[in-house]
Amino acid sequence: MDEQRQADLRRILESPSYRLVENDAEFLKQEALRPVRLQLELLKPELALAEHGVRSTIVVFGGTQITPREAAERRLAAARETLAERPDDALRARRVARAERLLEKSRYYDAAREFARLVSDCSQGGNGSDYVVVTGGGPGIMEAANRGAHEVNAKSIGFNITLPHEQVPNPYITPTLCFQFRYFALRKMHFLLRAKALVVFPGGFGTLDELFDALTLRQTGKLQKIPIILFGRAYWDRVLDFQFLADEGVIADDDLRLFAYAETPEEAWRRIVEFHASLSPEDICRPQ
Question: pTM of the predicted model, to two decimals?
Answer without folding.
Answer: 0.89
